[in-house]
Amino acid sequence: MPEGEIGIRVSKSGASKNSSVVGDLPPLDLENFKGEFSFDDFFKDLAADALPLFQDDNPKSSDNGQGTFPNGDLQENGVKGGGKLVGVPFVEAEALLPVCRDTRKELVELCYQVDARLETLKEDVEDYDVKHETKFIELEKGVERLFESFSRLDSRISGVGQTAARIGDHLQNADAQRQVASQTIDLIKYLMEFNASPGDLMELSSLFSDDARVAEAAAVAQKLRLIAEEGIGSLGAGMGQIKSSSNASPGLEVAVSNLQDYCNELENRLLSRFDVASQKRELSTMAECAKILSQFNRGMSAMHRYVASRPMFMDLEIMNMDARTVRGVDTVQGAPPNLMKGLSTLYKEIIETVRKEAATVAAVFPSPDAVMAILVQRVLEQRVVAVLDKLLPKPSLTNPPPMEEGGYQQYLRTLAGAYEKTQELAKELHGLGCGDLDVEGLAESLFSSHREDYPEIEQASLSQLFQHKIAELKSGVAQPADAAFLPATARANSRNGSMFAYATISVTVVGEFVHWNEEAVARCNLLTSQAAPLATNVRAVFLCLLDQVSLYTTEGLERAKDALNEAAQQRNLYSIGSTVSRRVAAAAATAAEAAAAAGERSVRGFMVAVQRATSNVALVQQHFVNTVARLLLPVDGAHAACCEEMATAMANAEGAALKGLQMCIDTIMAEVERLLAAEQKATDFKPSEDGNPPDHRPTNACTKVTAYLEHMLEAVYGALEGLNKQAFMTELGNRLYKALLVHWQRFTFSASGGLRLKRDVSEYAEFVRSFKAPAVDEKFELLGTLVNVFIVAPESLPTLVDGSLKQARAEAVRFIELREDYKSAKIASRFSSLAH
User: Fold this and answer.
1) Residues 121-127: contacts with CB under 8 Å, at least 24 apart
2) Region annotation Disordered: residue ranges (predicted)?
3) What average pLDDT does the segment 606-616 reach?
4) N or C: which end of the chain has fewer CB within 10 A?
5) pLDDT tens-digit profile of 426-461?
6) How many Cβ atoms from other residues are within 10 Å of residue 44's Cβ?
7) CA–CA distances in Å: residue 533 to residues 455, 516, 524
8) The dihedral sign for the CA sequence 645, 647, 650, 656
9) Which of 412, 663, 426, 603 is nearest to 521 (CA)?
10) pLDDT at 789
11) Chain centroid offset of residue 777 CA
């Protein structure tokens, strides 16, 4: 056989051997395929008889890595060349082929068997499903029938229950009717006993005399009274039109009378037992009596008896102790803070006492809130009122209490403190449980008599405080804290007892006014609950402050004006003529300097007064915004009216201030004129021709005037601000301008003197720029141009006047006439047209 071909050798002996092998194979069974099945094991079992060599599971390999076939031929491990397997052919294949065919046939038969069994099983499952579905339908129908049976059973049970309930109700109603009938029979019997004879209570049933059955007797007696009274009422209504005959039988009047007597006797007996138990603190007995007594007039007699028997309402020592607690043991006339401390202590004791009583009331009475309402009302109306009457004796408006004893202010402070503390007490008592009692309203009603006259007393108090303060200032007893800033003359006079006549306005004093008013407004807010009366009271109180501040400020400004008038009179007193002796002139100059010093002090004093008046007005306005305005806003028109009244009240002070400021300007300008007249020399503007260089410094008069004005304006800047300052500085600048023009009209000017004058004008113009008044700056700028008429040559005057001085032609002509060369240079003839 050529190399590379696979050949199969079949021998006869092999064929016969294979047929015998096939015949010996065991038949296949389905059981062989159950469980875990391995094809390798199955094939090995088939080939084991046909190929005995396959029974060796691990054939050995040759050393050169080549395998051997079962017939002993070699087998190549690798594949070479074209990929064909190279080796000896599998000659036993013919022996295995019949085995595989037979096995395949058996396997096919087994598949047929499996299919047949599966088909049978499928038919069995379908039959089972049909039977199961049929059975399930039958079960559903049975369950439905069972539910229907249960529903019928439930309906029967419900019907039986309702029937039983109706029977029970009928039985209960029947029993109740039986009991009512029995009770009615008993009540009729008892009523007949009470209606037997007037005033006879000895033949009554044992029920009404047995102490162990007092509660039952009380209930029966109340029912009998109700029946008898209703019977009399219905009988009277039915027989109102029928006249009774003389032999008519008596009705139920006897029963009513006897029942009333019995109820009174029983109630008194129970109250006596209640009192005894109360003294022994037997709460159970008290509770039993209170429960029975609640059937008599809702137990009000027991409630009032219990409240009235409390030691705080009966013990005189406790009442006296209340007054000592409030005023203090060692204090005859306590101050309001001490009084409020004592009142707080007393109210705490009252709260603790009422709290203990509340525990007893809750344990004894069936209606504790009603008892607590009576108790709290009694506490407020008796114990608290007694304390308030001693604490708050109402003052008279016609005969005010003296300030040494606190005046109206002490009464008002005590009233406000007591009102506030009493309201706190009312809240605490309400928290202990008082039912529907309006405790806070009741506490507020305790002060109704005090609140009626409160607005008038508040205003009287403010007036009294103001008058007392003014009296102290007049006497010099109470100097304000800012008195150290007064002028020396005022301080000296204050030591002589006339401080009020000379003292300037005090911010501290007005601060006291505002403090009094704040306190009064706070009291108004506390004691007045409604918005409209509150706004009225607050407005009246604030108007008191406006009147006080207006009066005090106006009088202060008037006093400062008086000082200015005195300084003016002093200046006029020492005015002298020009033809006097040197000695008289020297004395007059000394007196004039003294008058100037007095004028300076008066101006500074008035500026201080204006400054403090402004501060005082600011205090009032701040008080109005922070405290008063919000209380006026709820009432239409109240806020606007109060603002208008505030402006009106300050108008007088403003008028006095304006007049005083004008007088200050007069005083300042008087001193300026005195300095100009005393210090200005004729040689300043007409120096001698001695060959010395011209003096370019300001004149001595100019230096002293500007220095004086700068010194005085320090006080002005500190006192005035805003539009007031601007108006004052403008007026002062205009007056200075006019004074300088008048002053220079007295002198004759040379060319060099004109230069000296121009230097003064420049100095004045530079100084008035600090006034920050544009109108004044324009005038002094024009003045700087005007003095050029002394400097330019005569022939240039017409051009100057017709040019830059066209708006000041009249002043220019008057100044030209003051030139030294006015006549020699024949300026009048050259410039005659300007003069006309």
Assistant:
1) none
2) 1-24, 54-80
3) 90
4) C
5) 999 998 888 888 999 999 999 999 999 999 999 999
6) 14
7) 10, 20, 9
8) negative
9) 412
10) 85
11) 55
User: What tens digit of pLDDT does each residue of 93-127 get?
Assistant: 777 788 788 888 888 888 988 888 899 999 999 98
Do 182 and 175 touch, CB atoms closer than 8 A? no
Please give the pLDDT value at position 568.
84
Spatial neighbors of 408 by CB under 8 A, at least 6 apart, are 395, 400, 401, 457, 458, 460, 461, 464
Token duo for residue 473: 């200032």
DSSP readout, 171-220?
HHHHHHHHHHHHHHHHHHHHHHHHTSSTT--SS--GGGT-GGGHHHHHHH
- Two tokens, residue 184: 């009615």
How far, in Å, CA of 377 to CA of 60, rounded? Answer: 127
Locate 8 and state its tokens: 């199969």
Tokens, residue 797: 């005057």
Using 50, 70 and 90 to split pLDDT, how confident is the model at 526? very high
- Of the pLDDT bands very low, low, confident and very high (cuts 50, 70, 90), residue 59 is very low
Q: Which residues have CB under 8 Å from 200's CB, separation 6+? A: 258
b/e code 522-546 from CB counts within 10 Å (16+ = b)? ebbeebbeeeeebbbbbbbbbbbbb
Q: What is the DSSP string of 457-468?
A: HHHHHHHHHHHH
Main-chain phi, psi angles of 61, to 5 degrees? -100, 150
Find, among 612, 616, 573, the residue nearest to 595 by Cα. Answer: 573
Scored b (16 or more CB within 10 A) or e, 260-284 reads eebbeebbeebbebbbebbeeebee
Q: Dihedral angle at the C-alpha atoms of 574, 577, 582, 584, nearest 10 degrees? A: -30
Interval 744-761: pLDDT, tens: 999 988 888 889 999 999
Write out the DSSP string of 69-105: -TTS-EE-SS-BTTTB--B---TTHHHHHHHHHHHHH
pLDDT value at residue 487:
47
pLDDT(667) > 70: yes
- Grouping H, G, I as helix, E, B as strand and the rest as coil, residue 474 is helix
pLDDT given for residue 16 in this prediction: 42
Q: Which of 278, 350, 264 is nearest to 308 (CA)?
A: 278
Dihedral of CA atoms 261, 263, 265, 266 in degrees, nearest 10, equals 160
The Cα–Cα gap between 737 and 733 comes to 6
**CA distances to 44, 51, 54, 120 from 28, in Å:** 14, 19, 20, 22
Question: Two tokens at 142?
Answer: 């049975």
- Contact between 743 and 673 (Cβ < 8 Å): yes
Residue 818 has pLDDT above 90, yes or no: no
In one-letter notation, the amino acid at residue 565 is N
The per-residue pLDDT for range 268-316, each reduced to its tens digit, is 777 888 888 888 888 888 888 888 777 777 778 888 888 888 888 877 7
